[in-house]
Each structure stands twice: as structure tokens, then as C-alpha cells.
Amino acid sequence: MSDSRARKLVRTFTATPQDLQMLEALARYHGFSKSAMITSLLKKEFWRVFPKGTGDVRPEPGARIRGETEAPQETQAIVAPREGGTP
Hints:
With 87 residues, the protein is mostly helical. The protein has a domain at 10-55: Arc Repressor Mutant. 34% of the residues lie in helices and 0% in strands. The chain contains 2 helices and no strands. The radius of gyration is 20 Å and the shape is elongated.
């Protein structure tokens, strides 16, 4: 589901009352809804564990990938020569 216009579906999950209190506190702190907080935490953990993505989930075009030394061709900066010399 890499299409940003993909339909969003309502899902349910099981949590203890304490889990819900922690979720509500974090969401309130960050100014997110509970759903947005869950999504944010999920994405952060996913990219921490799989920095290059998986077979089904690929990084967005232009994303910086930890451990890669060179930017993809289409995102490399063009360096202009300095006055009176070469770069």
C-alpha cells in the first residue's frame, strides 16, 4: 500500500487499561490523535528495524537510508564552481 491515496481502514486492537492511558498521554503530549500516535510509533519502529524496507514495503523516493554512502543519482546536488577556480 505505497499509494498515498490508499483507502484508510479502521482497525481494532486489544490493550489493557494502562496501555490505553499511556497511549492517550503520549498522543496528548505530541498533539496527535490516538490513531496518529499509533501510526507514528509503528512507522518509527518499522524503519528502525528495517532501514532499507522489506520486500513489500520500500522507502519513499529520495529517502535517506542509514548506512548508504551515496545519494541516488536523481537526488545528488549539483555543485557550482567557486569564483576564480574549480570546485
